[in-house]
Request: fold
Amino acid sequence: MNPATLDQYQRFVIPNYTRYPICLVRGEGSIVWDDEDNRYLDFFPGWGCNLLGHCPPPVVAAVRDQVGRLIHVPNTWHTEPQGRLAQALSERTGWNGQCFFCSSGTEANEAAIKVARLNGKPGRYKIVTMLNSFHGRTYGALSATAQPKYHQGLEPMLAGFACVPFGDLDAASGAIDSETCAILVEPIQGEGGINLPPAGYLEGLRELADRHKLMLIFDEVQAGMGRTGRWFSYEHWNVRPDAITLAKALAGGVACGALIAKPDFAAQLRPGTHAATFGGNPLACAAALATMQTMEAGDLLARAIAIGERFRLSLEHMRSRCPFIREVRVKGCMIGVELSIEGGPIVQKCLERRLLINCTHGVVLRLLPALTLTDAQIDEGCEILNAVLSNQ
Reply:
């Protein structure tokens, strides 16, 4: 890595991230190169944001075209890209939702929290969330995030969040009282370890919400936009929410977030109740539209499922040979490998072999590969991972 770049970071950048001593300079698909021209195979592109891989040509073309027309205007004006994106997202929910745009997942969840409280009758402000959830770093979303490690040193958290175990309907029911206004849940927990919902769980939350007249909000920030082989992960189960939150993959790597809510709930977000300066800017909306068009043109929802199954076969084969692999969890291109040992050293050894993966929750290897990943690249990466695991 260029010493000058490293010196700039050490002197001028706040060290709130643990960074690898590597400077990435360009990418194409699932391959990135550093400033010494080393090639890396990326199974975790953009923290899951680069759903089509690095620099997908249709998104690059859309951004280049839009940047020469209009980059940003306030939301006191209408723009064609924002209207088109709102329609495209609403039509894919199947329940005619209305959209609020922002720049990140935590902002989308902040908006959802406001909508829930605005829809609650006087005195109803509490929201039920799940242990091991992750909803973001701003204070409302952080308070909803039921992982104490993220709260340390920042207390007190905001009042009004009741946290219960993921998958436990009885606990969720017991947390509801006369002051509860909503349930907020990731249909598939991402940062919490790629945790899939037990059979009947999401349907049970829908029944609880209906019975107690609560808003049911699904955080689809990591699982949404086709990653699991459906536009939204809740489509794998027989349930519909009242609102969903999106970000990460929404615009193919360009910063973009969204809240989609059923009209009756969305109506409470009146002028003056919420805003996002850069939300729905023409550049991000053009990128998001190009991302969605590319996915449909390439039948990439089906490809996500095929990629997941190819990974499953390889990972289950590794599991049969590695006693410290406890479980393999796969839903399309959302992949978790739970270990009985720490996963950090595995990530480091894969990096040394030029494979980029992630570890979450300390012991879960997390892969969020691009939907454009080839079979040959899957096999190449799995050979590296197998070699690393075999030497533990």
Notes: The first helix runs from residue 3 to 12. The chain has a mean pLDDT of 97. Residues 25 and 180 are 48 Å apart (CA to CA). The two ends are 28 Å apart (CA to CA).
